[in-house]
Amino acid sequence: MVPTAYYLILSAILFSMGVAAFLIKRNIISIFMSIELMLNAVNLSFVAFAHMWHQIQGQIFVFFVMVVAAAEAAVGLAIIIAIFRTRRTLNVDQINLLNS
Questions:
Q1: What is the value of pTM for the model shown?
Q2: In 3-state terms, what secondary structure has residue 3?
Q3: In CATH, what number is assigned to the domain containing residue 45?
């Protein structure tokens, strides 16, 4: 049996890696992947706490977060493709949507 603290430590490490990648990376797809990594880290902590307290509500909430993340991934990738088609780059520093 793995202690709940191990899952929470892993979740904190994954979330920290996502935040670091979000702040460091300049590619839109890398930033998008780091946001997904942060969402998955939070889901892991929800599942760990739900298992620790023997509550099903945490796992149900994780299911809804995963549904929203899937919809966000579809919309986010569509926006990324639209930006790439107009700007021909995915570098955040080179994209300025206010200028034509």
A1: 0.88
A2: coil
A3: 1.10.287.3510
